[in-house]
Design goal:
2 copies of one chain form a homodimer. The first copy, chain A, is of the alpha/beta class. Chain A has a 7-stranded mixed beta sheet, sandwiched between helices. Chain A has a 4-stranded antiparallel beta sheet with strand order 8-9-11-10. In chain A, a hairpin with a 2-residue loop joins strand 10 and strand 11. In chain A, helix 6 crosses helix 7, helix 12 packs across helix 14 and helix 13 crosses helix 14. The longest helix of chain A is centred in the C-terminal third of the chain and has 35 residues. Chains A, B: Pfam families: Pyridoxal_deC. Chains A, B: It comes from Streptomyces rubiginosohelvolus. Chains A, B: Belongs to the group II decarboxylase family. Chains A, B: Its cofactor is pyridoxal 5'-phosphate.
Chain lengths: 525, 525
């Protein structure tokens, strides 16, 4: 086998082109094989099928680039939970824009590493400009706003706690019961005291309880507020929390991983009033920013707040090199080798502009409100509350928590929909996190029909096996040899057939596998 | 502007295709504009040029996807230090294989997130199989080898220290003076005592000194050894270190970020004898594995060693979902949202097989030995030592450290070569880290000619300004309006012209910019 070609240099693009053709064909074929938001059958079907299609992972002799790309990319696409499908709406799991994914290819091909100037001359300049521009969106009146790029909100929250620790020593974190799990995990990682958790009985941090906690606790204190909670998408009362922090001499970090991009929408920006009073802000553009993972940021109002990240490694930032004008990049992250995630973000912002991003944000929020409207009109469903951003909690009327959990798993098992789950007001709810700006009202109606039909099946179907295992989650009924993906216009399915995992075909490279008919909802617009 | 298309679903590939055409054209044009391993002129030229070409980053109204991709990707490529160029050889900064970059596009387009099964049904199965297979390469005789995917060696080393902390409490790390800077940084992050540093006067950890240290220090102890140091590419005596750890009841972590892939080469595998005696091993496939960043791993001999990473977040791994058979993925990383880096790695391993990877490893090591041979034959250059892996240290005969540092910066400033630097035996050396399997003997000879010619310029040129700043690093001489990239066959340049940064053209979208003649060394094979 000749030495395989590289992605870089002037010859790279010609080497990439035929390989990309294979990837695009495999992505298409895999999505068609899947025929819905996720493959049917659950882990018991998908795991062995994927294993068969990708075996052997480390052969003695290679199968060649086209065969390997076709086999593995087809298997990955056929077995994806694809956020571009309107019925894949469980998590803050965004459908990436095509232009952002295309830009990300250039990052892979050039492979700049952001830990020294001589590995990333232009990429480091682009990153510096981008982080400064985004930090200025968050802190428009601050003296020297700056930001560092992270792998996501989890790393950004970790850095926020680390910066507080370095400023003040062993800081006590105080957060709401609605805060992201990464806050407690960061305290554990950093050897800090476990966070004090303030109740959030209505979904947002309780101000009186926070006041009490800040009165009792010893400083140094770091309050973590959330702008867009994972469970309900609610936004803590940021301005009032900032007031309490001022009163009690506590610092404030705001986790705006989800809600941060509302800043770009003139309509929704007021929801974030008070954001710029925080000592640091987490932002994730792989959520409401339509970037492929990862695209996180931690922003601060003053550049020098990042000083504790400074670090010295003579092979990367020798003193005499720095004195001679080579930028010192090592203090921009705790990572060393680092992908230029700035590129896809910058391409997206320049291509769409504020108005284009605002349009995507506004559409997504409107979609969530439309779903809430439809739920309100459906007697068989209860709505938790109107959405703040784009998260909608609902549940089948009268169902117990076990049924709600089983409805979710049955939809997954059948390959019909990917919905999330959240506890609120002491009950379990189905969670739709809407991030797809192409989702139509018809898609939403079909999604609700799937939920109500599945609930009916579960509650009125023939006596079922105990619902304890993934297979047992399915109602009993006549076995069918093949998954039947629902069309959006499908009549309610009163007798759904459970999948027969043992009959599931291997998706790749089995080109003879019958392709399900594409339906409207299979083809994201 | 219509809502921009998504990368996923059956329609994604058709939306991606024209955008990828724009990206490939921009990558080609940017590389041609650059005309060498990196742009000439240093930060003072590259930063403003990049800024101009990418401005405005956040316009009110977007410029559209093709314009933005063309402008930003061209600027990034024109301003890259491209590891696919044979004269870009400073760091463990790999030139990615085209097939790995192509696979990475599929990861961006499908955007599986590795924190829950319902975001990554097939990707999580593929990752589980890949990490198990790679861990088995490292621990062939262990009961249940496993690995987690990281953003690189830095995160893997951090996890190694974290796992030791969770097993034993505040563990004392002991590492060589040759260990990676991330070891000390991890201890700082995790609130652990600063590492005790054992001398490594010959480039590898001194066994007698380690024995003394382990005798004196209080347990719990974690020794960190290195298989492939950053400065010289040397490998600590792993087996002897493991013996000492056994004797002194210390645990052992081996940072094989660089050297780990030698395992795949029957020729070079013996260099890693003793690797499988470590409690954990760091491996980076974005170094000697030709993956775009990032592709790190931390391997352990027994699956249950990863238990301290387990974590509970009800929206991602509710107990009843886990009991019902949905895999719990949250304990596979400290990150939450996580890109499927397993895909590109798996495609590469399957496409090339062990034999193909071994061939790349063997070629790369042979290239380093050839460079050492050429240096030995060049009277004006001194060789530090024969390479262990693919790092070669050398210096102009009789030059002082200041001159060595200035030669490196001058090569950068002129856009002629990207070489690294390392201290060894009390002196500063130029460092060539060879990772490009396409580099030819002629490329290596040209690289050495560039070094000797630049040294001659600096030592014999007209009286220069004091060499304190990036511009001042250049010898004085007649200004030239345009960079003149050297052809590989170029005669020694006795009167090089410094770049005039103010005359540098904006690379994008300036399609009228004169393209330097492509030369052999501009076109990686």
């Amino acid at each position: 086998m000749p030495t395989p070609p590289l992605a870089g240099g002037t010859a790279g693009p010609a080497a990439l082109r035929p390989l990309l053709d294979t990837v695009l064909a495999a992505l298409h074929d895999g999505a068609a094989l899947r025929g819905g938001p996720l493959p049917a059958g659950g882990p018991d079907t998908v795991t062995p099928r994927t294993r068969t299609a990708t075996h052997p992972l480390i052969p003695d002799h290679g199968t060649g680039p086209h065969h390997a790309l076709r086999a593995l990319v087809t298997a990955l696409a056929a077995g994806a939970a694809d956020p571009a499908h309107p019925h894949c709406a469980a998590h803050l799991h965004t459908p990436p824009l095509a232009l952002a994914a295309a830009a990300d290819l250039a990052a892979s091909a050039l492979n700049p590493s952001m830990d020294s100037w001589d590995q990333a001359p232009a990429a480091s300049a682009l990153e510096a400009d981008l982080t400064s521009a985004l930090a200025t969106e968050i802190y428009p009146h601050a003296p020297s706003p700056d930001a560092v790029i992270t792998t996501g909100g989890t790393e950004a929250n970790q850095l926020a706690l680390l910066l507080a620790r370095e400023r003040h020593g062993p800081v006590q974190t105080v957060c709401g019961a609605n805060a992201h799990h990464s806050v407690a995990r960061a305290a554990w990682l950093l050897g800090l005291p476990e966070p004090v958790v303030v109740p959030a009985p209505t979904g947002t941090l309780d101000l009186a309880a926070l006041d009490d906690a800040l009165t009792e606790l010893h400083r140094p204190l770091l309050v973590v507020a959330t702008a867009g909670t994972t469970d309900t998408g609610e936004i803590d009362p940021l301005d009032a929390i900032a007031d309490l922090c001022t009163t009690h001499d506590a610092e404030l970090h705001i986790d705006a991983a989800y809600g941060g991009p509302l800043l770009l929408s003139p309509t929704h920006r007021p929801l974030l009033h008070g954001l710029d009073r925080a000592h640091s802000v987490t932002l994730d553009l792989h959520k409401l920013g339509w970037q492929p993972a990862s695209a996180g940021l931690l922003a601060v109002p003053e550049h020098h707040h990042l000083t504790p990240l400074h670090h010295h490694a003579p092979y990367l930032n020798a003193d005499d090199d720095t004195e001679a004008g080579l930028p010192d990049l090592l203090g921009r992250s705790l990572r060393t080798t680092r992908r230029p995630d700035a590129l896809k973000i910058a391409v997206t912002l320049q291509a769409l502009g504020r108005s284009g991003l605002a349009d995507l944000v506004d559409r997504t929020v409107a979609t969530a409100h439309h779903l809430a409207d439809l739920i309100t009109k459906t007697p068989a469903l209860d709505l938790y509350d109107r959405p703040t951003i784009s998260t909608v909690l609902f549940r089948p009327t009268g169902a117990d928590d076990h049924t709600v959990a089983t409805v979710r798993r049955t939809l997954l098992q059948r390959g019909h929909a990917v919905l999330g789950r959240a506890h609120a007001e002491g009950r379990l709810w189905l969670k739709a996190t809407l991030l797809n700006p192409h989702t139509t009202p018809q898609d939403l109606q079909t999604l609700l029909d799937l939920v109500t039909d599945t609930t009916t099946d579960l509650l009125t179907g023939p006596p079922a096996e105990p619902l304890t295992g993934s297979q047992a989650d399915l109602p009993t009924g006549p076995p069918a040899p093949e998954a039947t993906p629902p069309a959006p216009e499908a009549a309610p399915q009163t007798s759904p057939a459970p999948e027969a995992p043992e009959a599931a075909p291997t998706p790749a490279p089995a080109t003879t596998h019958p392709t399900p008919h594409p339906t409207e909802s299979d083809t994201p617009r």
